[in-house]
């Protein structure tokens, strides 16, 4: 059988979550509120890190990058999802679909790599406290951040290029909420085993390898924490790592669950992929600021300090 000599059409149709107007209206309100909270929470973290000199440390440097990634990732998916909840024909142009696939895939890969870098930072802080300033320098932080952004972007560029070089079949409907990698690959009119192998290989590099490094880091951290004699010291070390470990478990766990089985079809598998995509686009970005703020005394102190400045400024403006 010959390979179809077809190119991708001018647009695709996203099937989305529901065709019921009441359900779509309810989802629109829910997603819009969550998206606004995501923007405000992560932007607040960026402002606090920028304004408070006590937060000018490697841990908060990487946390600032994580907040920026969460803002960009949510913005690559949610605005279009909101728009499609208000229209009948949920079409997305070819170029916009390719761009969305690239940015969402790149930002996801960058986040996985960054979480591994943050685990290394916590390992150095807990297990090598005296040498920590010499190990985790500003230069190293900048290099590691650049490596995360470069690695995730390069992987996404390769995955997007090989995906949109596939000849397309007759169906232009994407059974998803966005132009997600697995959903787009399924539109191809040929055997996609090579693409699925590339997805698995990418998962090993960007998911499994960083995940193993994170586990090794926290095993060493756990051993070091057990050796700390004072309860206050153990509690401080635990609080330093608990927020990051929670985010790691959420992000890596769901991604491994999704991409460990790239060959999936419609029905329950497609619904699972949609829910996981919503988890990454909605829940993770809005939960990260909450997780890091509630368990971090320095972030709380910076927040109260900023609130005090705002009140002081407001009182000065109201004075005659």
Word description of this protein:
With 320 residues, this protein is mostly helical. 75% of the residues lie in helices and 3% in strands. The chain has ten helices and three strands; from the N terminus they run E-H-H-E-H-H-H-E-H-H-H-H-H. It has helices at 21-51, 58-84, 94-127, 132-135, 138-163, 181-185, 193-227, 231-259, 268-294, 297-318, and strands at 11-14, 91-93, 173-174. It has a three-stranded mixed beta sheet with strand order 2-1-3. Helix 2 packs antiparallel against helix 3 and helix 5 packs antiparallel against helix 7. It starts with 10 loop residues before the first strand and ends with a helix. Residues 1-5 have low confidence and may be disordered.
Q: Uncertain segments of ≥5 residues (pLDDT<50)?
A: 1-5
Rg, rounded, reads 22 Å
Q: Please work out how many helical segments DSSP would assign.
A: 10
Helix content: over 70%
- Taken as a percent bin, the fraction of beta residues is under 5%
Oligomer: single chain
Backbone shape = globular
Q: Give the overall pLDDT as a whole number.
A: 81
Q: Strand tally, please?
A: 3
Side-by-side strand order of the widest sheet: 2-1-3
Order of helices and strands: EHHEHHHEHHHHH
Which class best fits the helix and strand makeup? mainly alpha
State the end-to-end distance.
84 Å
Draw up the topology in text.
Layout: E1 11-14, H1 21-51, H2 58-84, E2 91-93, H3 94-127, H4 132-135, H5 138-163, E3 173-174, H6 181-185, H7 193-227, H8 231-259, H9 268-294, H10 297-318
Parallel strand pairs: 1-3
Antiparallel strand pairs: 1-2
Helix pairs in contact: 1-2, 1-9, 1-10, 2-3, 2-9, 3-5, 3-7, 3-8, 5-7, 7-8, 8-9
